[in-house]
């Protein structure tokens, strides 16, 4: 039986609703819709928190103060930002590919939000605990390449086009080492199910069994999530803002909503795959452990991002293919041998 | 109830797949064609998932979407004509195309009418990945390896073609 707090809350909600409504189908439908709303709220809240949090963390790392004018300690900065974005003029440049241009910021949000359905937030709290969990997760998140390219192409601007091309180059190249590094985890777990991956870390976290995979995943996640120091796609000093160059106001904000959703995603995914997910010592509830680990990983990603200078496009591509990919393959081989030796020893 | 939802999903997906597939061949803009192709593949992937072949559906999402992204980049780079938008080359071979389409439709019709298709017994494996892995890496290891070698050869060939004889 599961005993996550949210799982128990959901079950008792079902029990309360059943006598009132009567039909089990409708109750299940209501609870499912409620879960979807909660997931979307989570994504939206992450954007709200990170618009301030990102700047504060960045400021601390660079020994600055950061936003401190709006509200106490700059806490209302996100609200001010949102109001500003809402009141901005919606500029539609001439000579664009209208439909693709409009669709791109909307489509980019879909994969970023969809992966949240596959994260095990707590014991039993996972929206879709499917058989092919991890693989489906990678398949969905790989869909975010095309909207970037769409936006870059449709903007009819050289900077945007360059950014779009860079997205394809870097995201597709780094997907390969990422998938191969995660293969070690799948081999150790013997399943692609997200809940099974968390369960397999009851004794020992995968970060200790798969240190090389953890390193590769750390780098590839930064590249896939378009985070500094690998945010070649935006590369402000070279190509203005890449695919976002021609967007203003709320359209531009949608890109950032997706980016912050991705940042939280990276934290959750790393915590789930390498740090034992929601599991932890008993003195804190499991749900709290989950968020502590996830936000700690987000902090690590921000720390890396604001410490190192941005890399160059050609070096990051050759690093991906010539260093990370062989390393991932060696890790796969070592894991295979390791499993056999472990079985032989027992 | 479930039957109704199932067939509704099937019809919606079929409309999506056929509509986008038509768009692929009729669009005059190469990039639009390629993007519609992705939409078509995503529809096909969802169809697989409704048929409980979830792994195959995810593979469809993953490989084809990435493939299409590369296709667009190549398409834009190869067909960009100076200032204009990249275009799909149309040639006036409607008659030939129509004849081929009629032949294809006839063959499909014959197949549907006269071939006894093996009906599923309604049993779907809970662990699609494990069974597939067992088949690919145990039962059919030889064909799998042959396909892998073929792909490797194609990969090397592409590198040599792209880099030229001297550099590679």
UniProtKB/TrEMBL annotation, chain B:
UniProt cross-references to InterPro entries, sorted A to Z: NADH_UbQ/plastoQ_OxRdtase_su6 (IPR001457), Nuo/plastoQ_OxRdtase_6_NuoJ (IPR042106)
Keyword field: Cell membrane, Membrane, NAD, Quinone, Transmembrane, Transmembrane helix
Subcellular location: Cell membrane
Enzyme Commission number: 7.1.1.-
GO molecular function, one term: quinone binding
Protein topology in the membrane: Multi-pass membrane protein
Membrane-crossing segments per the record: 6-25, 30-49, 61-79, 95-115, 140-162
Catalyzed reactions per annotation: a quinone + NADH + 5 H(+)(in) = a quinol + NAD(+) + 4 H(+)(out)
Functional note: NDH-1 shuttles electrons from NADH, via FMN and iron-sulfur (Fe-S) centers, to quinones in the respiratory chain. Couples the redox reaction to proton translocation (for every two electrons transferred, four hydrogen ions are translocated across the cytoplasmic membrane), and thus conserves the redox energy in a proton gradient.
Organism of derivation: Anaerovibrio slackiae
GO cellular-component term (any): plasma membrane
Pfam families named among the record's database cross-references: Oxidored_q3
Family: Belongs to the complex I subunit 6 family.
Protein name: NADH-quinone oxidoreductase subunit J
